[in-house]
C-alpha cells in the first residue's frame, strides 16, 4: 500500500486543542515568513479552516504536526483554542509522512493562478480590488499576476517549458511583439539567464531598432507587372496626358517603354503644331 493511501486510510477527524499540538522538529519546510502567516490567518478568520491539520498521536498523549504547520501558527495568531484535525495513530514515521504530503501538494503555476483570477472576476463580475480583498492580498500583487496574461500563449508555453520563474515572465512584458518576447525567452532558457540578466537583455533589445523582415515579392507571371504599368498609363491618358507605352517581348525578358513628351521651351513639336 502506498504511503499516501496509508495516510488517507488511517486518519480520523477530531477536535484537538491547539495547546496539545507540538510542531514536528523533522518538518521539511523551515521558512515561515510572518506576512505569509498573517495573510493565512486573515483568510481563516474570514472563511474558516478549509483544510484540517494532520497530526499524529504520540505516546505521551500529545499530538505532533504531520502537515499544516502554517495553519497551526495562523490559528494560534487568531487565539483559537481548538481546531479540526486528522489524527493518525502512533508509530507513523512523521518525517516521511510530512515529506510525502509536501511532495504531493503541487502548487498552481503562476499562469494557472492568473487564469483562475481572471475566470473568477469574469464569472462574478468583480474588480481586481474586490478579488484582492477576498484573497487577503494587496491589489498590486493581484494586478501583477493578471498582467502576465498579456503574454501570448506561445510565450507562456516557452516560459513554462523552460521552467522560468514569474519574475522572468514579468521582465518580458516590457517588450512589444510576440517574436521579440519569444526570442528573449529562448535566450534566457538556453543561456540559463537570471532575472537580472534577462532584464539587462530586455533593456538592450529596447534600445535596438526594430528590424523589419525583408519582404521578397515573387511574381511568376510577367503579365501582372505589364498590366499594372499599362493601367497607370491609361489613367494618365484619361487626364489628357500625352503618355504612350510600348511592350517589347524578347526570349528572356520583357521591355516596357514609356514615352512622356517634354513640356516647355525646346520640347519636340507635335504633328499638329508642325503643320501650322
Order of helices and strands: HEEHEEHEHHHHHHHHHEEH
Number of helices: 13
Order of the strands making up the biggest sheet: 1-5-3-4-2
Uncertain segments are 271-276
CATH class label of the domain at 3-104: Alpha Beta
In percent, how much strand structure appears in the residues? Answer: 5-15%
Instruction: Label the structural class.
Output: alpha/beta
Largest sheet: 5 strands, mixed
What's the CATH topology name of the domain at 3-104?
A: Conserved hypothetical protein from pyrococcus furiosus pfu- 392566-001, ParB domain
Average predicted local confidence, pLDDT? 81
Give helix % range.
40-55%
Q: CATH homologous superfamily of the domain at 3-104 - what is it?
A: Conserved hypothetical protein from pyrococcus furiosus pfu- 392566-001, ParB domain
Radius of gyration: 37 Å
What would you say this structure looks like, in words?
With 276 residues, the chain is of the alpha/beta class. The protein is built from 13 helices and seven strands. Helix 2 (34-47) packs across helix 3 (69-77), helix 5 (110-124) crosses helix 7 (139-147) and helix 6 crosses helix 7 (139-147). It has helices at residues 3-10, 34-47, 69-77, 94-104, 110-124, 128-135, 139-147, 153-162, 166-172, 178-190, 195-207, 222-238, 271-275, and strands at residues 12-17, 21-22, 53-57, 63-67, 82-88, 244-249, 254-259.
Amino acid at each position: 500500500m502506498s504511503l499516501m493511501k496509508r495516510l488517507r486510510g488511517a486518519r480520523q477527524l477530531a477536535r484537538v486543542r491547539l495547546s496539545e499540538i507540538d510542531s514536528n522538529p523533522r518538518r521539511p519546510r523551515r521558512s515561515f515568513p510572518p506576512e505569509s502567516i498573517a495573510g493565512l490567518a486573515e483568510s481563516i478568520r474570514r472563511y474558516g479552516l478549509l483544510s484540517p491539520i494532520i497530526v499524529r498521536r504520540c505516546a505521551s498523549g500529545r499530538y505532533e504536526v504531520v502537515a499544516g504547520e502554517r495553519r497551526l501558527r495562523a490559528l494560534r495568531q487568531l487565539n483559537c483554542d481548538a481546531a479540526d484535525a486528522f489524527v493518525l495513530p502512533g508509530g507513523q514515521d512523521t518525517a516521511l509522512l510530512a515529506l510525502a504530503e509536501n511532495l504531493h501538494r503541487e502548487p498552481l503555476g503562476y499562469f494557472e493562478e492568473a487564469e483562475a483570477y481572471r475566470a473568477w472576476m469574469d464569472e462574478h463580475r468583480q474588480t481586481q480590488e474586490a478579488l484582492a480583498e477576498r484573497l487577503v492580498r494587496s491589489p498590486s500583487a493581484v494586478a501583477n499576476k493578471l498582467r502576465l496574461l498579456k503574454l501570448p500563449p506561445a510565450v507562456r508555453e516557452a516560459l513554462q517549458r523552460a521552467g522560468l520563474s514569474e519574475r522572468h515572465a514579468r521582465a518580458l512584458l516590457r517588450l512589444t511583439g510576440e517574436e521579440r518576447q519569444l526570442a528573449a525567452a529562448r535566450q534566457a532558457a538556453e543561456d540559463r539567464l537570471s532575472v537580472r540578466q534577462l532584464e539587462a537583455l530586455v533593456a538592450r533589445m529596447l534600445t535596438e531598432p526594430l528590424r523589419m523582415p525583408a519582404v521578397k515579392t515573387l511574381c511568376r507571371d510577367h503579365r501582372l507587372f505589364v498590366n499594372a504599368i499599362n493601367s497607370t498609363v491609361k489613367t494618365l491618358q484619361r487626364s489628357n496626358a500625352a503618355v504612350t507605352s510600348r511592350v517589347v517581348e524578347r526570349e528572356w525578358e520583357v521591355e516596357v517603354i514609356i514615352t512622356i513628351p517634354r513640356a516647355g521651351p525646346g520640347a519636340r513639336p507635335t504633328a499638329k503644331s508642325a503643320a501650322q
